[in-house]
Amino acid sequence: MSLAQGYRADTAITLRPMREADLDAVMEIELRAYPFPWSRGIFRDCLHSGYAMWVQEQQGVIVGYGVLSIAADEAHVLNLCTAPGHEGQGLGQRMLQALLKIARGHRAQRVFLEVRPSNPRAIALYERTGFNEIGRRPRYYPAHDGREDAIVMAMELLD
């Protein structure tokens, strides 16, 4: 499946590694997308640590990104975001598939992630992709009314 499948040529989505020069655009999306966003320092630290960090561009504008850590035979989706206003175009699915391909390329056998129970759209994406809930982390995320649990999900990467 090509990245541009389903899109007119002038709206093709391209995928490339994130660079430090992308952090302004990534932070602008992060701040609009999440009530409790990552800091610029977290993104910079992930870049400097060599995490797999990718951006999606549409006509030269960043419209999504993903962050994946890989250690030993496990990978962890740390951040997956589609820019507000660009949801429903399959961008999250494409980014997730790209991260899973990277994990497989590094011979990861399973991938983990955490997701807020209050994010049903993301949960549905992960379940469609093959992730299953394996547990909960109580009070993991900050929330406006205190703390919110995290649903821990995992997926086996079988050949």
Brief sketch in words of this structure:
By secondary structure, the chain is of the alpha+beta class. It has helices at residues 23-33, 40-48, 91-105, 120-129, and strands at 13-17, 52-58, 61-71, 74-82, 110-115, 132-143, 146-156. It has a single domain (9-156), classed as Aminopeptidase (3-Layer(aba) Sandwich), CATH 3.40.630.30.
Care to describe what's here?
With 159 residues, this protein is α+β, with helices and mostly antiparallel strands. The protein has one domain (9-156): Aminopeptidase (3-Layer(aba) Sandwich), CATH 3.40.630. Helices cover 28% and strands 38% of the residues. The protein is built from 4 helices and 7 strands; from the N terminus they run E-H-H-E-E-E-H-E-H-E-E. It has a 7-stranded mixed sheet with strand order 1-2-3-4-5-7-6, with helices on both faces. The longest helix has 15 residues, at 91-105. The radius of gyration is 15 Å and the shape is globular.
Distinct helical segment count: 4
Oligomer type: single chain
Helix content: 25-40%
Largest sheet: 7 strands, mixed
What is the gyration radius calculated from CA atoms? 15 Å
The CATH homologous superfamily is termed Gcn5-related N-acetyltransferase (GNAT)
* Number of individual domains: 1
Order of SSEs: EHHEEEHEHEE
Q: Which architecture per CATH?
A: 3-Layer(aba) Sandwich
